[in-house]
Amino acid sequence: MMNLKKQTKNIIMKLMKAKVTAYNNAIAEGKTKAAKAPISQTEINAVVAKINNAKNALNGKPTDYSKLRELYNEIDSIKNSPQFYNASEEAKKFFYETNIDDIQSSN
After folding, report:
1. Which residues make Cβ contacts (< 8 Å) with residue 68, sequence separation at least 6?
2. CA 29 → CA 37, 48, 69, 102, distances in Å?
3. Which of 77, 74, 81, 80 is nearest to 99 (CA)?
């Protein structure tokens, strides 16, 4: 299950990088065309449309930190609980990795 989460996260990160690259390329193309003279209104409209399409594809949304805050508020009680304190290092590592994946996948 954790491996699937990591694979999904990697795919999403690659897609986001591709979208950011497309946006940066559209901006660079706009700057290049703006530097040349003369530039037609048709070219300007095409560049603006390309930049807007790339920007809209980024579909950024605010990060929801509520789950992180909830888990952060539980850290002391979890670390001080006998179940965690007496757990093996392997169990502690698994607990940590599982929760980190959940936090990262929720954002």
Report:
1. 103
2. 14, 10, 41, 39
3. 74
* Cβ atoms of residues 23 and 55 within 8 Å: yes
For residue 30, which of 51, 11, 13, 16 has the smallest C-alpha distance? Answer: 51
Q: What is the rounded CA–CA span in Å between residue 99 and residue 59? A: 26
CA distance 47 to 34: 9
Q: Can you tell me which residue has the tokens 């706009």?
A: 30
Q: Is the Cβ–Cβ distance between 84 and 95 less than 8 Å?
A: yes
- pTM over the 0.85 mark: no
Asked whether the beta carbons of 99 and 71 are under 8 A apart, the reply is yes
> pLDDT of 65-89, one tens digit each?
787 777 778 777 877 888 877 888 8
